[in-house]
Design goal:
The complex is a heterotrimer of chains A (191), B (194) and C (417). With 191 residues, chain A is an alpha/beta fold. Chain A has helices at 19-30, 44-50, 82-94, 106-110, 141-156, 162-168, 170-180, and strands at residues 33-36, 62-65, 73-77, 100-104, 132-134. Chain C is 43% helix and 11% strand. Classes of the chains: A alpha/beta (191), B alpha+beta (194), C alpha+beta (417).
Chain lengths: 191, 194, 417
Amino acid sequence: MAELFCDARPQAVDPAANRVVRAFYNWAQANSLFILAFGTGCGAIELRPLFTARYDISRYGIMPRPTPRQSGLFIIGGYASIKTMKRIIRSYEQMQNPKFVMGLGSCTVNGGMYWDSYNTINRLDYYLPVDVYVAGCMPRPESLIAGFGRLKTLIREGRAEGANRYAENFDWYKANQKRIIKDWNMPEYNW
Amino acid sequence: MEDTLRTLVERFDATGVDRRRDRLAFAIVPPDRLVDAVTWLRDLAGYRHLVLLTAVDRIEEGIFRLLYLLRAPEERADIGLHVDVPREGASMESIHHLWAAARVYQRELREMFGIDFPGSPEVDVSMILEGWDGPPPMRRDFDTRKYSEETFYPREGRETRDPAAHAAVTRYPADEQVKDEIRRVARENRTRGE
Amino acid sequence: MRYDESPGKTGRAANSPGPAPDPGAPPRAAVSRPPDPWPPVRGERPALDLDSGRYLKIWQGPQHPGSTGNMALELTLEGDVVVDCRTHVGYLHRGFEKLMERRRFIQCFPIVCRICVPEPDFNEYLFAAATEELAGIAIPERARWIRALTLELTRIASLTMGLGGQAGAFGLGTVGQWAVAHRDFVLDLFEELSGHRIYHMYIIPGGVRDDLPEGFAGRIEDVLGKIETLVGDIERVMFANAVFKARARGLGRIPPEWIEFFGVTGTTARAAGVRRDVRRDAPYLVYDELAFEPIVGTRSDVYERSLLRKEEILLAVRLVREILARMPRGPVRERLPNPLHWRIPAGETYVRAESGRGEYGYYLVADGTAYPRRVCVRGASYTHAMALLEELAVGVSVADVAGLMASLQTCPPEIER
């Protein structure tokens, strides 16, 4: 089985040297955000109205995709239990660059309602590079749309470099992840 | 329901019958009579629906008190049978052959309280937690807040206040002022007395 | 040998793994089972030689758009037929029951609603009812009516979305779009009532937080009209749809004798012809004063369960109208003692309600302090999703597993809490 898995470390990608090309790339990325349809917590329930007639997120060039390979935006919908965290990390590492993470709800900011729970993480940015937080419990769909707008602005300004942060500080993120996930139950990684 | 309770007391050594509502009663049975009692309730007394199976950690007495809550759909009554098992090496006879649902409850109790049900299918397979190396988390002597602070990274700047102390300052500031006033007057009286 | 000795020790034939089912055979659920005293005990898994190349093991979930939430099914396939299924939960475990033990009763009130996301109000009501019963608080008459109104509105929202999910699992995306969009109208009502769309924190111990807003009944009536129109549309688009009929009829049949054995409640049990509805069997709030009958089906397959859920949306609409018409005036809240010093006398109780997915119950133990000693939540889909789904999925085509899962209305957050 082990030969089926990639053991290469993620690589940071330098932005395009030409300023015009870079701006074009950023503009294009900002206008096609594909969400990974992984309802990791309560947040999944407020994502559903976004895709229906009332909020209709397709207007902003955003749509849900079923697999990590096709997605560029990972919305962590609320609290992440340790068991889910393992799947979140696997999904995130399967996503292709450029990729962005949005932390949805107070639980991803500081633990929220479950700050003293033994099974939910307290802050997401120690395990994944978060680009945008949307606070609240639950945030309304309008807050999410505002969060998407903020994320687009960041991408256009070239400041949403979470994937590169993850690659550069890979050992730090991995150490934090391994501190809570004792049982990787995955083929051997070499790091 | 009264007949059933009487039979439980007479034939299955039930004690401490507590009628909570007119259709809900709790009783304690010895651990070795529990499966007999539950089987009789299910097959002959009409209490066919297993509502839930759970445990309460009574750490002061050193026991887990299990609850088997059964419901008779026709009679519209519930009977909860309590069983006390010692916390040390807690173990109880399994009832997975009576209800398929019991299998799931027993797996959860095994994981969350550390109560063993020998013979129950997959009882040792972890169900909810994954790679958990601490004590069973639902036991009273496991401190979830301490564990959380040691394991995760609390974000600095988050304030957690003790409700009583916080309320004394915010909700009842007048009280604080009055108390200060009393203290001041008392101090003045003392100084005057000298 | 005692008569209740566990069959694992006696080695009955029912316990031995049978041969792997022939894919051409009808689904296993359709085979008649031996009568009740010795129902099947599927302790061991079928002995499958996974190295033989006949079988394929795939995971459906947790990252899967077709699952009802964050839970996983480990499916062993032969061709496209499931020969073994195992459910995995725990991805949403927050340890609520532990967290409540270190919170005062009033501090538990904001967190209980987060146990089940689609139907938060049942948690609020049951927690309030359990504490009121142990503390001996009687709530005002109008609060009881408002609570019933809230629960029925929640039922409409949850069942509507459940119906949309059921349709979506069979590829009828349109119905899913309509259902979620119409649920928003109900959520708007909740927002006006309580200030929040999802977690209302409205049913507080001692009554409800506040009275209904001015003109609320008229706005409810508008939404009910929209919901009725939607149900009419769904009837034409979904229940008359040849594809839906072909896929849902005969899928996931639950024999009536399984109902007790698996502890099935709610619509899933009623679709099997078992007349059981907590609102009728153990009336709470004002349901003994309302005129309605449980809706019972016969065929017990996915189509029947969907049909019953559709009928229950209409029933909830009727009940909301009746409640609004008969609601008395008066106060809506009983004053609680100072929540910081609110101690509840020692005791234990179990309260239940009929949620959209079945019997929802709270078992509360108080020990005389300001903190609950033990709160145990009996999630309605606890047994549906775990033990029953493992049985039902065997013999089903892998394409229909998502629809089967949706028809049991599994709700992962309430399974693992």
